[in-house]
Amino acid sequence: MPERWMAGSRRGSQPGTPSLYRKPGDEDHRSNPDHRRRVGRPEVQREIEPTGSPETGDRWQRRLQQIAREARRAGPFALGVLATLVALLLYNAFTPRTPQLTVNQVNDSIAQALASATPPPAFSSRVYQIIQPSLVLIQTETLDENEEPGQGLGSGVVINAAGEILTSLHVVDDTTKIEVAFADGTQSDAIVIAQEPDNDIAVLRALTPPSLVVPAVLGNPNAMRVGDEVYPVGNPFGLYGSMTAGVISGFERSFRPPDSDRRLEGLIQIDAAVNPGNSGGPLLNRNGQVIGIIVGIANPTDQEVFIGIGFAVPINVAAGAAGLPPH
């Protein structure tokens, strides 16, 4: 007979049917961890290995030791650098700052320096200082064709320790008296002791020369070139010790002086101003050495004034009249 559901009966009380209710104390196998371990995957036991081997530790230790040694060696140098920086900081901190100059102050300083500076002497000034003690003023007395007395003047230069004077022959030719004045003011009569008419050169001897004479230094005209600076010194128009400056315009020039039938050859042409009274005076180079003797000027007019062409006998030719060895 089939079973019937009785009123008040519980479905869950039938045999074989699981009850929906649990009694206190019943355990659910799902909440039991031991049960999970039994019914789940077997638990894998893992061991944590050390991160470094003994060899790796030794290497790091050696590296640290090396760094320590290098630090000890670099210590003195680092201290030195630090000490230097500290010294610089202290110096800058305690050194007073130099005040900055304005543009006007700089300009004033430059102007004062330029004003107080002594410029070096010019070449011409040094040349004159060298030759001045050797200069000679020559004054002459003459008689013309009518026996009328006349006067002349010219220039000369002392060429040796005996006080002998080199000049131009036309300055002292046909004179009745020759008087010379030295740089120290000594005056003396003089006579002609040698002459070379072909070169318009004469040598004078003072009868009462000064106790001390300063001969000029003779130079080498062959070392000169066209365009080189030259300085004639003499007594133009009686102006004692006058100096001019110019350059050499040419060599091996020829020239016939006025009132003369002789033509002078092998002359040095210059553009430095020379006038009557310069004849017989020295022509100097930049070292103050005599390289020639002035003998004349070229002028196509009847006026005996300078127009830009003067002539000098080379000193190696002129000195031969005094028996001096040529260069």
Task: Explain what this protein looks like in three dimensions.
With 327 residues, the protein is α+β, with helices and mostly antiparallel strands. Among the domains are: 80 residues, Beta Barrel (Thrombin, subunit H), CATH 2.40.10.10; 102 residues, Trypsin-like serine proteases (Thrombin, subunit H, Beta Barrel). The chain has six helices and 13 strands. The strands form two sheets. Strands 1-2-3-6-5-4 form a six-stranded antiparallel beta barrel. It has a six-stranded antiparallel beta barrel with strand order 7-9-10-13-12-11. Strand 2 and strand 3 form a beta hairpin. The protein is elongated and about 135 Å long. The N and C termini lie far apart (176 Å). The N terminus is likely disordered.
